[in-house]
Design goal:
The complex is a heterodimer.
Chain A: H1 13-33, H2 47-74, H3 77-109, H4 117-138, H5 141-168, H6 188-237
Helix pairs in contact in A: 1-6, 2-3, 2-5, 2-6, 3-4, 3-5, 3-6, 4-5
Chain B: H1 6-53
The chains are: A mainly alpha, B mainly alpha.
Amino acid sequence: MLSEFDDRPAIPLWLLAAAALTMMVHLYLIFMWVPTEATMGIVQRLFYFHVPAAVAQFTACFVGGIAAILYLVKRDPRYDDLSLAANETVLVFGLVNVGLGMLWAKPIWGIWWTWDPRLTSSFLLLFLYGAYLVIRPAAPVESRGVICAVVCILGMADVPLVYLSNRLFRTQHPSPVLGGGPDSGLAQPIAATLFFGMFTIMLLWWCVLLVRRRVARLERAAEDLTRRSHELEDLRSY
Amino acid sequence: MVDPNLSWLFWGYAAGWLLIFGYLFWIAQKERTLRKKVSELRDAMEERWKQKKA
């Protein structure tokens, strides 16, 4: 049961090397290469971590949601493991996204938080995935996968709402800088650093996902072995 | 002159990286514990099978 992944590293070496290298280049671009933005000054450099973390968070929502749908269709526990791994990374990268947003908001807006549509929908997204992680260990084992898949699909459905919130409503959060109409757009070095950052954080997210999926499979293996051990114990007692 | 907002930038990046690498460290620890548990459970199962056969 465990032998198929026992000795292989969770993250392929090429991926680990690529993630480490791009992280170093990304930091160089942020702190040494890209010019300081004229209006907000140095604190705007949080943008190059805040937005890529949001991109990783949304990708994780979709990966987790699609894996949950596949689990409901095929009932293959591997999809449930992938969904769990992706959903936990939603929370990690979501906390980075929201946390960095708050640290950026305080010096620029003068407040840590406001209940505007973008921030509220982001909070709701984090809350849903937090609920997923609370429900999972509490749900009955036989229906756990199904219950968690439903919560996860609900979470995925909130992603378009978060994305569109600053397009559909007036928000304290800035208007979209990419694809946001004729007034949107980024200077070339800022756009280059942002896109490189997205690539870097996606590689990092992929590494985290692979490690977490391995742990999810180990958790399932431990659970199966414990159950079988109890069954064997019961047989012995007859 | 040091920019007054430098500390926000520092804390932002420090918190972000700490969160991600802290999480990675936590799951690596969890993997180690689970590997040990699975190995112990396997050994215990084998032992019980031997006892059952005997």
